[in-house]
Amino acid sequence: MRCIYYKPLMTKKLFLKTLGCAMNVRDSEHMIAELNRIERYDLTQDESEADLIIINTCSVREKPVNKLFSEIGQFVKHKKKSAKIGVCGCTASHLGEEIFKRAPEVSFVLGARNVSKITQAVNSEKFLDININYDESEYVFGEFRQNPYKAYINISIGCDKKCAFCIVPHTRGEEISIPHEIILSEAKKVAKNGAREIFLLGQNVNNYGRRLSNGKRGELNFSQLLTQISEIDEIERIRFTSPHPLHMDDEFLKVFASNPKICKSMHMPLQSGSTNILKTMRRGYTKEWFLERAQKLRDMSPDAAISTDIIVGFPGESDEDFEDTMSVMEKVRFEQIFSFKYSARPLTTAAQMTNTIDDKTASMRLKKLQDRHAGLLDEMTPNYKDRVFEVYFEELRENKMVAGRTSQNFTVCVDGSEELLGKIKNVKITRPQRLILYGQVV
Ligand code: SAH
Ligand code: F3S
Fold it and tell me: Which domains are seen in the chain, by residue range?
Protein backbone atom coordinates (compact mmCIF):
# COMPACT_ATOMS: atom_id res chain seq x y z
CA MET A 1 0.00 0.00 0.00
CA ARG A 2 1.45 3.30 -1.07
CA CYS A 3 0.02 6.16 0.85
CA ILE A 4 1.44 9.21 2.50
CA TYR A 5 0.32 9.37 6.08
CA TYR A 6 1.44 9.36 9.69
CA LYS A 7 1.42 5.68 10.62
CA PRO A 8 1.19 5.77 14.46
CA LEU A 9 -2.19 7.49 14.28
CA MET A 10 -3.70 4.66 12.28
CA THR A 11 -5.99 3.01 14.75
CA LYS A 12 -9.02 2.10 12.68
CA LYS A 13 -9.07 -0.59 10.04
CA LEU A 14 -10.84 -0.66 6.70
CA PHE A 15 -11.66 -3.74 4.64
CA LEU A 16 -12.74 -2.84 1.13
CA LYS A 17 -13.91 -5.24 -1.56
CA THR A 18 -14.04 -3.93 -5.12
CA LEU A 19 -16.08 -5.55 -7.88
CA GLY A 20 -16.41 -4.57 -11.52
CA CYS A 21 -14.54 -2.21 -13.79
CA ALA A 22 -11.44 -0.01 -13.61
CA MET A 23 -13.60 2.98 -12.72
CA ASN A 24 -14.68 1.14 -9.58
CA VAL A 25 -11.04 0.40 -8.77
CA ARG A 26 -10.33 4.12 -8.99
CA ASP A 27 -13.43 5.00 -6.92
CA SER A 28 -12.17 2.59 -4.26
CA GLU A 29 -8.77 4.28 -4.29
CA HIS A 30 -10.52 7.61 -3.80
CA MET A 31 -12.50 6.25 -0.83
CA ILE A 32 -9.37 4.77 0.73
CA ALA A 33 -7.58 8.09 0.33
CA GLU A 34 -10.42 10.08 1.87
CA LEU A 35 -10.87 7.66 4.77
CA ASN A 36 -7.18 7.71 5.38
CA ARG A 37 -6.66 11.45 5.10
CA ILE A 38 -9.67 12.56 7.12
CA GLU A 39 -10.61 9.59 9.30
CA ARG A 40 -7.23 7.88 9.63
CA TYR A 41 -8.30 4.44 8.50
CA ASP A 42 -5.66 1.96 7.41
CA LEU A 43 -6.34 -0.97 5.07
CA THR A 44 -6.63 -4.54 6.23
CA GLN A 45 -7.04 -7.74 4.21
CA ASP A 46 -8.78 -9.41 7.15
CA GLU A 47 -12.48 -8.62 7.43
CA SER A 48 -12.69 -9.94 11.01
CA GLU A 49 -10.36 -7.21 12.34
CA ALA A 50 -11.97 -4.38 10.36
CA ASP A 51 -13.85 -1.48 11.97
CA LEU A 52 -15.37 -0.63 8.63
CA ILE A 53 -16.33 -2.95 5.76
CA ILE A 54 -17.13 -1.49 2.36
CA ILE A 55 -18.34 -3.34 -0.72
CA ASN A 56 -17.89 -1.33 -3.90
CA THR A 57 -20.40 -2.99 -6.20
CA CYS A 58 -21.05 -3.50 -9.91
CA SER A 59 -24.51 -3.84 -11.45
CA VAL A 60 -23.72 -4.26 -15.13
CA ARG A 61 -24.92 -7.87 -15.02
CA GLU A 62 -27.39 -9.56 -12.69
CA LYS A 63 -25.18 -12.22 -11.13
CA PRO A 64 -22.97 -10.03 -8.91
CA VAL A 65 -26.05 -8.14 -7.71
CA ASN A 66 -27.65 -11.39 -6.54
CA LYS A 67 -24.45 -12.32 -4.76
CA LEU A 68 -24.34 -9.04 -2.85
CA PHE A 69 -26.80 -10.02 -0.14
CA SER A 70 -25.22 -13.40 0.58
CA GLU A 71 -21.89 -11.60 0.75
CA ILE A 72 -23.23 -9.06 3.24
CA GLY A 73 -24.51 -12.04 5.28
CA GLN A 74 -20.99 -13.49 5.37
CA PHE A 75 -19.54 -10.18 6.51
CA VAL A 76 -22.17 -9.89 9.25
CA LYS A 77 -21.18 -13.35 10.47
CA HIS A 78 -17.43 -12.70 10.59
CA LYS A 79 -17.13 -9.03 11.43
CA LYS A 80 -16.30 -7.40 14.77
CA LYS A 81 -19.47 -6.55 16.64
CA SER A 82 -18.86 -2.82 16.41
CA ALA A 83 -17.88 -2.83 12.74
CA LYS A 84 -19.95 -0.87 10.23
CA ILE A 85 -20.89 -2.13 6.78
CA GLY A 86 -21.34 0.18 3.79
CA VAL A 87 -22.45 -0.54 0.23
CA CYS A 88 -21.13 1.75 -2.52
CA GLY A 89 -20.98 1.76 -6.31
CA CYS A 90 -23.49 1.05 -9.07
CA THR A 91 -25.70 -1.41 -7.16
CA ALA A 92 -25.96 1.12 -4.35
CA SER A 93 -27.09 3.68 -6.97
CA HIS A 94 -29.80 1.50 -8.43
CA LEU A 95 -31.12 -0.39 -5.38
CA GLY A 96 -30.77 2.47 -2.90
CA GLU A 97 -33.07 2.11 0.10
CA GLU A 98 -33.95 -1.50 -0.79
CA ILE A 99 -30.48 -2.46 0.47
CA PHE A 100 -31.40 -1.31 4.00
CA LYS A 101 -34.61 -3.31 3.80
CA ARG A 102 -32.94 -6.51 2.67
CA ALA A 103 -29.84 -6.07 4.84
CA PRO A 104 -30.61 -3.95 7.93
CA GLU A 105 -27.03 -4.39 9.15
CA VAL A 106 -25.86 -2.04 6.38
CA SER A 107 -25.35 1.44 7.80
CA PHE A 108 -24.70 3.41 4.61
CA VAL A 109 -25.53 3.21 0.92
CA LEU A 110 -23.49 5.53 -1.26
CA GLY A 111 -23.97 5.77 -5.03
CA ALA A 112 -21.25 5.61 -7.67
CA ARG A 113 -21.60 9.33 -8.28
CA ASN A 114 -21.23 10.29 -4.60
CA VAL A 115 -17.81 8.96 -3.69
CA SER A 116 -16.60 12.24 -2.19
CA LYS A 117 -19.23 11.94 0.58
CA ILE A 118 -17.65 8.79 1.98
CA THR A 119 -16.49 10.34 5.27
CA GLN A 120 -19.91 11.87 5.86
CA ALA A 121 -21.47 8.45 5.22
CA VAL A 122 -19.13 6.73 7.64
CA ASN A 123 -19.84 9.25 10.40
CA SER A 124 -23.62 8.99 10.16
CA GLU A 125 -25.86 6.55 12.00
CA LYS A 126 -27.69 5.69 8.76
CA PHE A 127 -26.78 7.35 5.45
CA LEU A 128 -28.22 7.13 1.95
CA ASP A 129 -27.10 9.21 -1.02
CA ILE A 130 -27.51 7.92 -4.54
CA ASN A 131 -28.06 11.18 -6.40
CA ILE A 132 -26.91 10.64 -9.99
CA ASN A 133 -26.96 14.36 -10.73
CA TYR A 134 -24.35 15.11 -8.13
CA ASP A 135 -21.27 16.58 -9.78
CA GLU A 136 -17.94 15.69 -8.23
CA SER A 137 -15.97 16.09 -11.44
CA GLU A 138 -13.82 18.82 -9.89
CA TYR A 139 -13.48 17.39 -6.39
CA VAL A 140 -9.84 16.92 -5.45
CA PHE A 141 -9.47 13.59 -3.69
CA GLY A 142 -6.63 12.50 -1.42
CA GLU A 143 -3.77 10.51 -2.89
CA PHE A 144 -3.77 6.71 -2.84
CA ARG A 145 -2.82 4.18 -5.50
CA GLN A 146 -2.96 0.43 -5.25
CA ASN A 147 -0.33 0.04 -7.93
CA PRO A 148 2.44 2.65 -7.81
CA TYR A 149 3.64 1.77 -11.31
CA LYS A 150 0.36 2.31 -13.10
CA ALA A 151 -1.68 5.36 -12.17
CA TYR A 152 -5.38 5.48 -12.94
CA ILE A 153 -6.71 8.96 -13.70
CA ASN A 154 -10.39 9.75 -14.29
CA ILE A 155 -11.00 12.02 -17.26
CA SER A 156 -14.79 11.97 -17.22
CA ILE A 157 -17.67 10.78 -15.11
CA GLY A 158 -20.99 9.27 -16.23
CA CYS A 159 -22.15 8.34 -19.72
CA ASP A 160 -24.48 10.04 -22.20
CA LYS A 161 -24.86 7.11 -24.55
CA LYS A 162 -27.82 5.15 -23.18
CA CYS A 163 -27.12 1.85 -24.95
CA ALA A 164 -30.34 -0.16 -24.62
CA PHE A 165 -28.79 -2.94 -22.50
CA CYS A 166 -26.68 -0.84 -20.16
CA ILE A 167 -27.46 0.30 -16.64
CA VAL A 168 -24.39 2.53 -16.29
CA PRO A 169 -26.03 5.84 -17.39
CA HIS A 170 -28.67 5.17 -14.72
CA THR A 171 -26.11 4.60 -11.98
CA ARG A 172 -23.39 7.05 -12.95
CA GLY A 173 -25.50 9.81 -14.47
CA GLU A 174 -24.76 12.11 -17.37
CA GLU A 175 -21.33 12.49 -18.88
CA ILE A 176 -19.15 15.32 -17.61
CA SER A 177 -15.53 15.79 -18.62
CA ILE A 178 -13.02 16.73 -15.97
CA PRO A 179 -11.18 19.96 -16.85
CA HIS A 180 -7.88 19.22 -18.60
CA GLU A 181 -5.94 21.37 -16.11
CA ILE A 182 -6.95 18.98 -13.28
CA ILE A 183 -6.03 15.91 -15.35
CA LEU A 184 -2.65 17.30 -16.41
CA SER A 185 -1.76 18.38 -12.91
CA GLU A 186 -2.64 14.90 -11.58
CA ALA A 187 -0.59 13.29 -14.35
CA LYS A 188 2.42 15.46 -13.47
CA LYS A 189 2.05 14.63 -9.78
CA VAL A 190 1.93 10.85 -10.30
CA ALA A 191 4.81 11.03 -12.76
CA LYS A 192 6.88 12.81 -10.10
CA ASN A 193 5.94 10.07 -7.62
CA GLY A 194 7.34 7.39 -9.93
CA ALA A 195 4.48 6.16 -12.12
CA ARG A 196 5.70 5.60 -15.66
CA GLU A 197 2.30 4.55 -16.95
CA ILE A 198 -0.91 6.56 -16.92
CA PHE A 199 -4.25 4.84 -17.41
CA LEU A 200 -7.01 7.29 -18.40
CA LEU A 201 -10.51 6.30 -17.38
CA GLY A 202 -14.01 7.15 -18.52
CA GLN A 203 -17.04 5.39 -20.03
CA ASN A 204 -16.48 7.12 -23.36
CA VAL A 205 -12.97 8.46 -23.29
CA ASN A 206 -12.78 9.47 -26.93
CA ASN A 207 -15.79 11.69 -26.46
CA TYR A 208 -13.71 13.65 -23.94
CA GLY A 209 -14.31 17.39 -23.82
CA ARG A 210 -17.89 17.30 -25.05
CA ARG A 211 -19.25 18.96 -21.92
CA LEU A 212 -17.65 20.26 -18.76
CA SER A 213 -19.40 20.76 -15.47
CA ASN A 214 -20.26 24.36 -16.45
CA GLY A 215 -22.10 23.12 -19.54
CA LYS A 216 -19.43 24.40 -21.92
CA ARG A 217 -17.31 22.36 -24.33
CA GLY A 218 -13.82 21.62 -23.01
CA GLU A 219 -10.78 23.30 -24.55
CA LEU A 220 -9.21 19.98 -25.55
CA ASN A 221 -10.65 16.95 -27.28
CA PHE A 222 -9.37 13.45 -26.44
CA SER A 223 -6.65 13.42 -29.11
CA GLN A 224 -5.32 16.76 -27.86
CA LEU A 225 -5.46 15.58 -24.25
CA LEU A 226 -3.42 12.48 -25.17
CA THR A 227 -0.85 14.66 -26.92
CA GLN A 228 -0.49 17.01 -23.93
CA ILE A 229 -0.10 14.13 -21.47
CA SER A 230 2.55 12.56 -23.69
CA GLU A 231 4.58 15.76 -23.36
CA ILE A 232 5.21 15.03 -19.66
CA ASP A 233 8.80 13.75 -19.73
CA GLU A 234 8.63 11.09 -17.01
CA ILE A 235 5.56 9.41 -18.50
CA GLU A 236 6.52 6.62 -20.85
CA ARG A 237 3.21 4.89 -21.44
CA ILE A 238 -0.38 6.02 -21.79
CA ARG A 239 -3.39 3.71 -21.82
CA PHE A 240 -7.08 4.45 -21.76
CA THR A 241 -10.43 2.73 -21.43
CA SER A 242 -13.05 2.71 -22.81
CA PRO A 243 -13.15 4.34 -26.19
CA HIS A 244 -16.36 4.06 -28.24
CA PRO A 245 -16.14 2.83 -31.86
CA LEU A 246 -18.44 5.66 -32.95
CA HIS A 247 -15.90 8.31 -31.94
CA MET A 248 -12.90 6.64 -33.56
CA ASP A 249 -12.35 9.38 -36.10
CA ASP A 250 -9.25 9.74 -38.28
CA GLU A 251 -7.65 12.32 -35.98
CA PHE A 252 -7.91 9.94 -33.04
CA LEU A 253 -6.54 6.95 -34.99
CA LYS A 254 -3.67 9.10 -36.27
CA VAL A 255 -2.66 10.27 -32.80
CA PHE A 256 -3.01 6.70 -31.52
CA ALA A 257 -0.81 5.29 -34.28
CA SER A 258 1.85 7.99 -34.36
CA ASN A 259 2.46 8.86 -30.72
CA PRO A 260 5.07 6.41 -29.39
CA LYS A 261 3.96 6.90 -25.78
CA ILE A 262 0.44 5.69 -26.48
CA CYS A 263 0.31 1.95 -25.87
CA LYS A 264 -0.64 -0.01 -28.93
CA SER A 265 -3.65 -1.63 -27.35
CA MET A 266 -7.12 -0.52 -28.44
CA HIS A 267 -10.38 -1.58 -26.87
CA MET A 268 -13.14 -1.52 -29.51
CA PRO A 269 -16.34 -2.71 -27.82
CA LEU A 270 -18.29 -4.35 -30.66
CA GLN A 271 -21.26 -5.70 -28.60
CA SER A 272 -22.79 -7.24 -31.74
CA GLY A 273 -21.72 -7.76 -35.35
CA SER A 274 -25.27 -7.44 -36.67
CA THR A 275 -26.31 -4.01 -37.90
CA ASN A 276 -29.92 -4.76 -36.93
CA ILE A 277 -29.01 -5.66 -33.38
CA LEU A 278 -26.62 -2.71 -33.14
CA LYS A 279 -29.54 -0.52 -34.07
CA THR A 280 -31.81 -1.88 -31.34
CA MET A 281 -28.87 -1.69 -28.96
CA ARG A 282 -28.58 2.01 -29.94
CA ARG A 283 -24.85 1.75 -30.49
CA GLY A 284 -24.85 4.33 -33.28
CA TYR A 285 -22.67 2.41 -35.78
CA THR A 286 -23.12 -0.40 -38.28
CA LYS A 287 -21.18 -3.62 -38.87
CA GLU A 288 -19.56 -1.97 -41.89
CA TRP A 289 -18.50 1.10 -39.91
CA PHE A 290 -16.92 -1.07 -37.24
CA LEU A 291 -15.06 -3.21 -39.80
CA GLU A 292 -13.83 -0.16 -41.69
CA ARG A 293 -12.52 1.49 -38.50
CA ALA A 294 -10.85 -1.73 -37.35
CA GLN A 295 -9.20 -2.18 -40.75
CA LYS A 296 -8.00 1.42 -40.73
CA LEU A 297 -6.54 0.87 -37.28
CA ARG A 298 -4.78 -2.33 -38.43
CA ASP A 299 -3.40 -0.45 -41.47
CA MET A 300 -2.23 2.59 -39.52
CA SER A 301 -0.93 0.68 -36.54
CA PRO A 302 -0.01 -2.85 -37.66
CA ASP A 303 1.56 -3.67 -34.32
CA ALA A 304 -1.54 -2.82 -32.26
CA ALA A 305 -3.68 -5.38 -30.47
CA ILE A 306 -7.46 -4.95 -30.52
CA SER A 307 -9.68 -6.13 -27.67
CA THR A 308 -13.44 -6.08 -27.57
CA ASP A 309 -16.64 -6.66 -25.57
CA ILE A 310 -19.34 -8.88 -27.08
CA ILE A 311 -22.87 -9.59 -25.85
CA VAL A 312 -24.70 -12.67 -27.13
CA GLY A 313 -28.40 -13.39 -26.74
CA PHE A 314 -29.60 -9.79 -26.89
CA PRO A 315 -33.41 -9.72 -27.44
CA GLY A 316 -34.25 -10.54 -31.04
CA GLU A 317 -30.80 -11.93 -31.90
CA SER A 318 -31.39 -14.49 -34.70
CA ASP A 319 -28.92 -17.19 -35.76
CA GLU A 320 -28.05 -14.93 -38.67
CA ASP A 321 -27.36 -11.97 -36.35
CA PHE A 322 -25.12 -14.15 -34.24
CA GLU A 323 -23.25 -15.35 -37.35
CA ASP A 324 -22.63 -11.67 -38.15
CA THR A 325 -20.90 -11.35 -34.78
CA MET A 326 -18.84 -14.45 -35.52
CA SER A 327 -17.86 -13.06 -38.90
CA VAL A 328 -16.71 -9.72 -37.45
CA MET A 329 -14.58 -11.64 -34.95
CA GLU A 330 -13.16 -13.69 -37.81
CA LYS A 331 -12.33 -10.62 -39.85
CA VAL A 332 -10.86 -8.44 -37.11
CA ARG A 333 -9.12 -11.32 -35.32
CA PHE A 334 -9.34 -9.62 -31.92
CA GLU A 335 -6.37 -10.35 -29.70
CA GLN A 336 -8.69 -10.41 -26.68
CA ILE A 337 -12.44 -10.67 -26.16
CA PHE A 338 -14.63 -10.15 -23.10
CA SER A 339 -17.87 -11.94 -23.91
CA PHE A 340 -21.11 -12.04 -21.98
CA LYS A 341 -24.57 -13.48 -22.14
CA TYR A 342 -27.10 -10.68 -22.25
CA SER A 343 -28.50 -9.95 -18.81
CA ALA A 344 -31.69 -7.89 -18.52
CA ARG A 345 -31.08 -4.90 -16.27
CA PRO A 346 -33.62 -2.72 -14.51
CA LEU A 347 -34.09 0.84 -15.81
CA THR A 348 -32.82 -0.08 -19.29
CA THR A 349 -34.97 -0.01 -22.42
CA ALA A 350 -33.89 -3.53 -23.45
CA ALA A 351 -35.44 -4.89 -20.25
CA GLN A 352 -38.86 -4.02 -21.73
CA MET A 353 -38.26 -6.06 -24.89
CA THR A 354 -40.32 -9.21 -25.10
CA ASN A 355 -38.48 -11.05 -27.90
CA THR A 356 -35.97 -12.53 -25.46
CA ILE A 357 -33.59 -15.35 -26.31
CA ASP A 358 -33.76 -18.50 -24.21
CA ASP A 359 -30.86 -19.20 -21.92
CA LYS A 360 -29.88 -22.44 -23.64
CA THR A 361 -29.48 -20.74 -27.02
CA ALA A 362 -27.54 -17.85 -25.46
CA SER A 363 -25.23 -20.30 -23.65
CA MET A 364 -24.60 -22.25 -26.87
CA ARG A 365 -23.78 -19.06 -28.74
CA LEU A 366 -21.45 -17.91 -26.00
CA LYS A 367 -19.61 -21.21 -26.06
CA LYS A 368 -19.32 -21.19 -29.85
CA LEU A 369 -17.93 -17.66 -29.78
CA GLN A 370 -15.45 -18.39 -27.00
CA ASP A 371 -14.30 -21.68 -28.55
CA ARG A 372 -13.66 -20.02 -31.89
CA HIS A 373 -11.78 -17.21 -30.20
CA ALA A 374 -9.62 -19.73 -28.38
CA GLY A 375 -8.94 -21.24 -31.82
CA LEU A 376 -7.95 -17.83 -33.19
CA LEU A 377 -5.57 -17.36 -30.26
CA ASP A 378 -4.05 -20.76 -30.98
CA GLU A 379 -3.34 -19.51 -34.48
CA MET A 380 -1.91 -16.17 -33.32
CA THR A 381 0.05 -17.09 -30.21
CA PRO A 382 2.86 -19.20 -31.75
CA ASN A 383 3.81 -16.16 -33.87
CA TYR A 384 5.01 -14.40 -30.72
CA LYS A 385 7.82 -16.93 -30.22
CA ASP A 386 11.26 -15.31 -30.43
CA ARG A 387 9.74 -11.85 -30.76
CA VAL A 388 11.19 -9.16 -28.53
CA PHE A 389 8.72 -6.94 -26.67
CA GLU A 390 9.27 -3.96 -24.40
CA VAL A 391 7.77 -5.02 -21.07
CA TYR A 392 6.88 -2.74 -18.16
CA PHE A 393 7.14 -4.88 -15.03
CA GLU A 394 4.52 -4.25 -12.39
CA GLU A 395 3.75 -7.35 -10.31
CA LEU A 396 5.50 -10.17 -8.41
CA ARG A 397 4.11 -13.63 -9.15
CA GLU A 398 4.59 -17.06 -7.56
CA ASN A 399 7.67 -19.19 -8.27
CA LYS A 400 10.01 -16.18 -8.39
CA MET A 401 8.41 -14.78 -11.48
CA VAL A 402 7.72 -11.17 -12.33
CA ALA A 403 4.87 -10.10 -14.60
CA GLY A 404 4.58 -7.10 -16.82
CA ARG A 405 2.75 -5.85 -19.86
CA THR A 406 3.77 -5.21 -23.42
CA SER A 407 2.54 -2.10 -25.16
CA GLN A 408 -0.19 -4.33 -26.70
CA ASN A 409 -1.29 -5.23 -23.15
CA PHE A 410 -0.07 -8.84 -23.41
CA THR A 411 0.99 -10.27 -20.06
CA VAL A 412 4.62 -11.39 -20.02
CA CYS A 413 6.28 -13.38 -17.22
CA VAL A 414 10.02 -13.79 -16.65
CA ASP A 415 12.18 -15.23 -13.88
CA GLY A 416 13.22 -12.34 -11.69
CA SER A 417 12.81 -10.36 -8.52
CA GLU A 418 11.58 -7.05 -7.15
CA GLU A 419 14.39 -5.22 -8.91
CA LEU A 420 12.48 -5.49 -12.16
CA LEU A 421 9.37 -3.76 -10.78
CA GLY A 422 8.79 -0.34 -12.29
CA LYS A 423 11.31 -0.96 -15.08
CA ILE A 424 10.85 -1.34 -18.82
CA LYS A 425 13.00 -4.10 -20.35
CA ASN A 426 13.27 -5.93 -23.64
CA VAL A 427 12.01 -9.48 -23.31
CA LYS A 428 12.42 -12.28 -25.83
CA ILE A 429 9.45 -14.66 -25.82
CA THR A 430 10.53 -18.26 -25.37
CA ARG A 431 7.23 -19.98 -24.51
CA PRO A 432 4.11 -18.22 -25.75
CA GLN A 433 0.85 -19.40 -24.21
CA ARG A 434 -2.68 -18.18 -24.83
CA LEU A 435 -2.87 -15.91 -21.80
CA ILE A 436 0.74 -15.47 -20.75
CA LEU A 437 3.86 -15.11 -22.84
CA TYR A 438 6.88 -16.51 -20.99
CA GLY A 439 10.26 -15.10 -21.87
CA GLN A 440 13.69 -13.86 -20.86
CA VAL A 441 15.03 -10.37 -20.39
CA VAL A 442 17.58 -9.69 -23.14
N1 SAH B 1 -18.43 2.13 -21.53
C2 SAH B 1 -18.06 0.91 -20.86
C3 SAH B 1 -19.19 -0.02 -20.71
C4 SAH B 1 -19.28 -0.52 -19.34
S5 SAH B 1 -20.13 -2.00 -19.25
C6 SAH B 1 -17.06 0.20 -21.69
O7 SAH B 1 -17.10 0.37 -22.90
O8 SAH B 1 -16.27 -0.57 -21.12
C9 SAH B 1 -18.85 -3.12 -19.79
C10 SAH B 1 -19.34 -4.15 -20.72
O11 SAH B 1 -20.31 -4.96 -20.09
C12 SAH B 1 -20.05 -3.62 -21.96
O13 SAH B 1 -19.17 -3.24 -22.96
C14 SAH B 1 -20.91 -4.78 -22.36
O15 SAH B 1 -20.26 -5.65 -23.25
C16 SAH B 1 -21.18 -5.50 -21.05
N17 SAH B 1 -22.56 -5.27 -20.62
C18 SAH B 1 -23.14 -4.12 -20.27
N19 SAH B 1 -24.44 -4.30 -19.97
C20 SAH B 1 -24.68 -5.62 -20.15
C21 SAH B 1 -25.85 -6.43 -20.00
N22 SAH B 1 -27.02 -5.91 -19.67
N23 SAH B 1 -25.73 -7.76 -20.24
C24 SAH B 1 -24.54 -8.29 -20.60
N25 SAH B 1 -23.41 -7.57 -20.75
C26 SAH B 1 -23.48 -6.25 -20.53
FE1 F3S C 1 -22.94 1.60 -21.14
FE2 F3S C 1 -23.02 2.20 -23.71
FE3 F3S C 1 -22.27 4.01 -21.91
S4 F3S C 1 -22.21 0.32 -22.83
S5 F3S C 1 -21.41 2.87 -20.24
S6 F3S C 1 -24.28 3.12 -22.11
S7 F3S C 1 -21.35 3.63 -23.93
Answer: 11-129 (3.40.50.12160), 147-263 (3.30.750.210), 271-286+293-383 (3.30.750.200), 385-441 (2.40.50.140)
